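Example (one chain per record):
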Amino acid sequence: MPGELPAGEPVPVDGALPDAALARAGQRGFGVYVHVPFCASRCGYCDFNTYTATELGGTTDRDGYADQVLAELALAARVLGDRPLARVDTVFVGGGTPTLLPPDDLARILDGIDRTWGLAGDAEVTTEANPESVNPESLTQLRAAGYTRLSLGMQSVAPGVLAILDRRHRPGRATDAAREARDVGFDHVNLDLIYGTPGERAEDFAASLQAVLDAGVDHVSAYALIVEDGTRMAARMRRGELAYPDDDVAADRYLAAEAALSDAGFSWYEVSNWARTPASACRHNLLYWTGGDWWGLGPGAHSHVGGVRWWNVKHPSSYAARLGAGQSPGQAREVLSAEERRTEDVLLRLRLASGLPLATLDEAGRAGAARARDTGLLDASAYDAGQAVLTLRGRLLADAVVRDLLP
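Predicted structure:
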């Protein structure tokens, strides 16, 4: 089931932001995230804010969902007012399974964003999809509506691994969908992989990597399996039905991914993400990692504007009720201090291949960076040029490096 939201101070009923936040809005770029909380079934490892029809009492609540998102968008326009924001550079529709909504609804949401703030001429517009939730017809409609990027949850091509993850698509469907997306004109296509699933063999992951390369995509994400409390997988592990993930196996899988993808011409630009060219990198995620602003629409969606972060109520019915009453769906928020913003900058930028300016660190952090350089966790030449950039070994130990830079 979905995890708990953090605590925070109340969000004003009208969603108003402090004047200082409004003054900083959009200075590092501005994007929009749209959360679609519906899934046909729940994967055993998932604790995202998603709901099946059964969990919603037999109804999906999908029919009026686009109108609810547009109502929150109208509230966002009132909050930000007429200040000169940059046009929206990136839109990311995630979930859940966004493509359970009709393409017309996804088109209406994108049109609403464009009418509200304006889309940049070269805006990146992404939707996530499960492989079985799209076909050439729906992909053609999405492309015509202005979507430029498709991110598909592939996870693996090994039937046994898919079964343990409770994925419903057949092993080859994700790569078929990727080819269909390219055929109808999507500029960029990503495939997501998960490694370290109990029972996964080295040859299973190698086959998944090869399938990704054969599909001709220009972006790959690969994440180690994380077992979250409250999920069906966590319960199975506690009962001894499945083994817990092995850190050494996960490291071996990561090294295999780096080797296969780099040999095929991909370059890492974030610890878990590889792109065929710089233009293939996900600009929306880069907005997050470089401290940009975004408005998150939908139940449980998080937003960040001018140093204020807030999150919406989680359940679709509560979200709809708030908007129906003309109120902000925001549940709580936090106003980040300058030191908190600096800490987040270190946490996020260090994960990027472009690295973190050493000048961002305090004296203790710079001493930690020197130790990380001396132990081979930070690139020595980049360090000499004033940047903290993880080596391959450093990527495997990124959390430990962060702890050394934020003592």
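Caption: The chain is about 40% helix and 20% strand.
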